[in-house]
Amino acid sequence: MAVQSLSHYPNNVLEELADPKVGIVTKATFIPSIAEMRTFCDRIWNRIDPPNRASIERAPLQLAGPQEDDAATVARRARVVQGFNDLLADLQSTPDPFRRNQPALRSKVEEKAYAEAWLAQQAEKAKTEIAPKLSSGALSAYYASTSGGTNER
Distance between CA atoms of 53 and 44, rounded to whole angstroms? Predict the structure, then answer.
């Protein structure tokens, strides 16, 4: 309905209406009504060409319809669609795209088996590694803190 009400105004009037710097958005407090837009356009039109306003051809605004696309545009659109399809497939294949490098989720049974294998590996590693030795100063400080200052062994 708004398009039909504003279609008889020249393009330069409609461009000024829609201009974010000087258009109706700078004057209206919320979404303007069709009547407010018509009043705004009438003021612009009277300012641009007051005496000859009636003589200006009032051709209705033509909306852009389907256009013939060249081969490059069709190919570019096909690449964009393919890129979106690839992205969608990638996002659907991973539970969380930000955690791709983490192992896949396991069931409780698999998680328990994994934990037991890790613990067995750590136990074997502890058997073969030499335990770190503490210095005599560190041992003295430890004994002093636990036995109330006496160094009894």
Answer: 11
Q: Does any domain span residue 29?
A: yes
Whether 24 is in a domain gets the answer yes
Residue 63 has pLDDT above 80, yes or no: no
**Per the domain annotation, does 25 fall within a domain?**
yes
DSSP string of 75-121, one letter each residue: HHHHHHHHHHHHHHHHHHHSS-GGGTTSPPP--HHHHHHHHHHHHHH
Residue range(s) defining the domain that contains residue 28: 2-55
Q: What's at 22, amino acid-wise? A: V
Number of domains in the chain: 1
Q: Locate 148 and state its tokens.
A: 């109330």
- Residue 14 confidence (pLDDT) above 80: yes
CA–CA separation, 33 and 48 (whole Å): 23
Per-residue pLDDT, 101: 64
